[in-house]
Amino acid sequence: MVHIIKTIPEIQHELINEYKDQSTATVHEAMGRRGAMTSSIKPIKKGIKICGQALTVDMPAGDNLMLIKAVSMAKKGQIIVINNGNVVDSGPFGEVLAVECMTKGVAGLVTSGSIRDSQAVTNLGFGVFASGLSIIGTTKAAAGKINHSITCGNVVVNPGDIILGDDDGIVVVPLGEARDVLKAAKQRDAKEADIMQQLKTGASLFDLYNYQNIIDQLNITEE
C-alpha cells in the first residue's frame, strides 16, 4: 500500500468560487440532507468561512508526523481534513503549522480532534474547524495515510471533495456530484427568496407549504 498519495482530482476554480457564495445548511439540504459533519466540529472563531478541495490525512492520536508532511504537500486553495479519531486531549496543530499553511495559501483545516494556540491561529486569520482545544503535545513517530478516503465527523471524505464550512458547521460535497449539488442549491436559494418575499407581505409559512395537511394526517386535534 502507498501511504502517501501526492495528487488529487482537481476542478475548476470557478466552481469553488460559486460554492463560496453558498451556506452549509443550503448545500446540505440540496444534497438530500447528506454531507453534514457532526456538530462537535465547530469553527474556532465565529465568522470563519472556508471552501476548497480536501487534502485528507489519517493519523494516529497523539502524533502529528503525517500532518506535518501533509502541510508540506498542500497547495493553494486546498483544505486539510484530518481523521484524528475522537481524541480531543491532544494538540497536533498550532501556530507554527498555521504560519506555513497561510504562506502556502491553504484555505483551511478541519479536524475531528483538537488544536492548540487558538488565539494565535485566529490572529493569523487561518480558518480552522475542530472538536476542541488542547495544549497536550504530540510525538512524531507513527505512520498514517495522506490522500486516502477517511471519515471525519461521521462523514466519508475523499481527496478532492469540496469542503464548505461556516458558523453552522461543515458540509462535504462528493466531487462527482459537485455541479448537480450546486445547481440544486441555487434553485433552493431562489425558492427561499421567493418564500421570504411572500412572508414580508403577510403570508404564513404554515399556509404556503400546506402543513395543515400533515397536521390532519397525524390526527392532531385543535381547540
Task: Give a description of the structure.
The protein has 223 residues and is of the alpha/beta class. The protein is 33% helix and 21% strand. The protein contains eight helices and twelve strands. Strands 1, 2, 3, 4, 6, 8, 11 and 12 form an eight-stranded mixed sheet that branches. Strands 5-7 form a two-stranded parallel ribbon. Helix 2 crosses helix 6. It is elongated, with a radius of gyration of 20 Å. The mean pLDDT is 95.
Strand fraction band?
15-25%
**Rg, Cα atoms, Å:** 20 Å
The end-to-end span amounts to 67 Å
- Give the rounded overall mean pLDDT: 95
Low-confidence segments? none
Per the principal axes of the C-alpha atoms, what is the gross shape?
Answer: elongated
Q: Which bin fits the share of residues in helices?
A: 25-40%
Note the main sheet: 8 strands, mixed
User: How many β-strand stretches?
Assistant: 12
Structural class: alpha/beta
**Which H/E pattern describes the elements?**
HHEEHEHEEHEEEEEEEHHH
Number of helices: 8
Features:
single chain; 223 residues; alpha/beta; 8-stranded mixed sheet; two-stranded parallel ribbon; 33% helix
Task: Explain the layout of strands and helices.
Layout: H1 13-19, H2 24-30, E1 42-43, E2 50-58, H3 65-73, E3 78-83, H4 95-104, E4 108-111, E5 114-115, H5 118-124, E6 128-130, E7 132-133, E8 145-146, E9 150-152, E10 155-157, E11 162-166, E12 169-173, H6 178-200, H7 205-208, H8 212-217
Parallel strand pairs: 2-3, 3-4, 4-6, 5-7
Antiparallel strand pairs: 1-6, 2-8, 2-11, 9-10, 11-12
